[in-house]
């Protein structure tokens, strides 16, 4: 399997089909984002509808598997990039709020609106 482990091969059935269109996933398309202490964070994109999920898969030696996943618009590349960044903390949010509440904040918001073409 491309970019997968023996663990994922054994427990991939927990995320066997796309929750959006129900097409069966190809296990070769799964990307392991992290693997620690018997838990793998996996990204899988559906080849039919291009919806993606991020799932944590936990497997036991006896074959029991648990999975928790969410539908996402993030790519596996996004997840690898975000994994390496420092988390946003409350002070970051407060600093950003302060920036936006000052006169410069209106200019900043106007620039963002122009960049993403918000009407």
Supply database-style keywords:
4 strands, four-stranded antiparallel β-sheet, 4 helices, Nuclear Transport Factor 2, Chain: A, elongated, single chain, 2 domains, 119 residues, alpha+beta
Radius of gyration: 19 Å
Show unreliable segments: none
Compressed to H and E, one letter per element, the order equals: HEEEEHHH
Helical coverage, percent range: 25-40%
- Count of spatially separate domains: 2
Portion of residues in beta strands equals 15-25%
Distance between the termini: 47 Å
Q: What is the averaged pLDDT score?
A: 79
Which strands sit side by side, in order, in the main sheet? Answer: 1-2-3-4
Label the overall shape. Answer: elongated
Number of helical runs?
4
Under CATH, the topology of the largest domain can be stated as: Nuclear Transport Factor 2, Chain: A
CATH C-level label of the largest domain: Alpha Beta
CATH architecture of the largest domain: Roll
- What structural class do you assign from the helix and strand content? alpha+beta
What profile does the largest beta sheet have?
Answer: 4 strands, antiparallel
Please give the number of β-strands. 4
């Amino acid at each position: 399997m491309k970019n997968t482990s023996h663990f994922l091969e054994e427990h991939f059935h927990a995320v066997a089909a796309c929750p959006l269109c129900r097409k069966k996933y190809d296990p070769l398309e799964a990307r392991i984002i992290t693997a620690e202490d018997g838990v793998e964070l996996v990204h899988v994109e559906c080849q039919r509808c291009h919806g993606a999920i991020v799932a944590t898969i936990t497997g036991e030696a006896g074959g029991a598997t648990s999975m928790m996943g969410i539908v996402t618009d993030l790519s596996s590349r996004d997840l690898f990039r975000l994994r390496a960044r420092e988390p946003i903390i409350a002070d970051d949010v407060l600093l950003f709020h302060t920036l936006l509440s000052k006169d410069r904040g209106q200019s900043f918001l106007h620039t963002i609106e122009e960049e993403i073409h918000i009407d």
